Amino acid sequence: MERHNIKPIVEGKGVWWHPGNRGPLKNLSYILQFGSMKFYKVRMDHTMFPHMHPGIGIRFIHSGKFQWSVEGQEVELLPDDLSITNPWQLYGSPHGKTDIGEYTWMLVKPETYGTNTPLSLGSWTQLSQNFQKNLGDLLTKENTIVLRNAKKLKKYFVEMKNELCGQETGYEIIAGNLIDNFFIELYRHLSNRKQRIEKEYNFTEELTTIITNDLNKKWIIEDLALQFGMGKTKFTDEVKKLTGYPPASFIINLKIEKAIELLKNETNNLSEIALVCGFSSLQHFTSTFSNRIGIGPAKFRVANRKQNG
Questions:
Q1: Taking the model in full, what pTM does it have?
Q2: Claim to verify: residue 246 and residue 154 sit in the same structural domain
């Protein structure tokens, strides 16, 4: 993929330092860009189309709504959202325009970093090599990194702007410390999110296994909740959050999934399928199946037979 060195046309109010205007970055070679701008109008600009930068891109939204794209995946960023991109990723506006709003961005150039190369930030950082490698691993595992409501991280962008604008004695040291501390907080957030995602996945998998292993059972929500060490209300909220359905509906969905699997096997008659899937009667099975799928189980079987010859 060709790397484009694109210099955006800026129509807004704020600060922006870049290779053509280093300003306070002249003593901070690892920061390729730093900007904090407020844009007052939408402007079509071909330089805003997705392109690559030779660094880790970090952007924090202060106000407005920004429609951006990372590797072809469109994302909507709102106030207090944070976006991270890797050097090899195409990033920009899918429509080639600037949006109304305010955001701060920073481009940090690592010494070495790639999809198969561990992250090494360079001699300026106080972070251990092992920490840098682990951070790089987290960054490369996600195609699109967007942290929603990342208010805790806002302080780093505000303080960095103040240090670069003031350029008081020792600002270079403070700038390096701010980036180090930011990466530590980012690592914690991503690590905790990874663990949370794994925990949520395990919860859904375990619940699915428990139910599908005994579809014929008349499940009591309170009993299921106890198996996960939760009360009924918390359990119901958790299932709805992770599956989109309250527990009773989720159980019915699993029964219907099993019924569809059995209907594709011509040796099973409808009454047997109804019994195996835990429906109280063939009539109950037929009406529930019709409500969820749009046609009855008998018609579904005929349609599936025709589709598969």
A1: 0.66
A2: no
